[in-house]
Amino acid sequence: MIGGKRILVVVPARGGSKGIKLKNLRPVLGVPMVARVGHVVGQLDNIDRAVVSTDHEEIARVAEGSGLAAPFRRPEMLSADRIGDLEVLTNALEEMERIDGVAYDVVVMLQPTSPLRRPDDVTRTVEMLVEGSWDAVWTVSESDSKAHPLKQLTMEPGSGRLDYYDPAGKAIIARQQLTPVYHRNGVAYAITRDCLLEQETIMGARTGALLIEGPAISIDTEWDIDLCEFLMRRNGYPEAED
After folding, report:
1. Looking at CB atoms within 10 Å, which of 105, 107, 125, 183 has the fewest?
2. Is the CB of residue 196 less than 8 Å from the CB of residue 86?
3. Is residue 95 part of a domain?
4. Are 225 and 152 within one domain?
5. What is the spatial distance between Cα 228 and Cα 233, in angstroms, rounded to a whole number?
6. 221/174 same-domain check
7. Checking DSSP bridges between strand 162-164 and strand 49-53, what pairing results, if any?
């Protein structure tokens, strides 16, 4: 518990993925991504329960080997490409409350695709939620100014005509004119039970941001994996032995 709140960690890890086949089982520096989450959770002292939400038996087996529990299987209707986090987390919360016979106060989502997360990142996210009485807290990273919405362009299909995504971009001369923007990095989401079940959202009426300093890569492509492994080697992460 943290601040008297019962904490449930949910690791969403379905078997299907279009970009990288069986992405959640893909090794990063020799360790499957879903197992890396289990290793992080194993270093957390204040978590009451940590489970994987999956429809895939091999993912469940690897997750259990890393210390996560897999007491239920995600239904097929919640395993498609366009199913949102809300439905997956609500299903996991309801299943675990039924199995464990308790009510969890906070759900923490840890996506396997952010292998650079640190245990302290997770703890700070939950502490911020509880101490600030937020509905939810998301970890974010500051976006590079080159990716700022006011610097983005559109290209008309067929003609190739170029235009600004936002007309206000025409007035931008220097990056100092840009208000910083942030993006979710997938390191951690902490959400209250009421936010999920009553507000029916993972971004409640009062949602706070925890800024993560340094790289926090969310893996979607092979290039993301290469970059992540480079950073991990540079920072002394141990490589798994064969």
Report:
1. 183
2. yes
3. yes
4. no
5. 9
6. no
7. unpaired
Q: Do 128 and 137 form a contact (C-beta atoms < 8 A)?
A: yes
Judgement on whether residues 57 and 79 belong to the same structural domain of the protein:
yes
pLDDT tens by residue, 8-39: 999 999 887 766 888 999 999 999 999 999 99
**pTM to 2 decimals?**
0.88
- Residue 157: domain span: 144-179
- Within-domain flag for 170: yes
The CATH number of the domain holding residue 114 is 3.90.550.10
Q: How many CB atoms lie within 10 A of CB 61?
A: 12
How many C-alpha atoms does 173 have within 13 Å on its Cβ side? 0
- Beta strand 153-155 with 162-164 is antiparallel
DSSP state of 44: -
Which residue blocks in 67-203 are alpha helix, DSSP H?
Answer: 85-100, 119-132, 193-194
Tens-digit pLDDT profile for residues 153-209: 999 998 999 999 999 988 888 888 888 999 999 999 999 999 999 999 999 999 999
Q: Is residue 119 part of a domain?
A: yes
Distance CA 112, CA 11 (A): 7
Burial label for 11, CB within 10 Å (0-12, 13-18, 19+), is buried
Q: Can you give the pLDDT at residue 228?
A: 93
Residue type, 120: D
CA–chain centroid gap for 109, Å, is 6
pLDDT: is 173 or 134 the higher one? Answer: 134
User: Identity (one letter) of the amino acid at 201?
Assistant: T
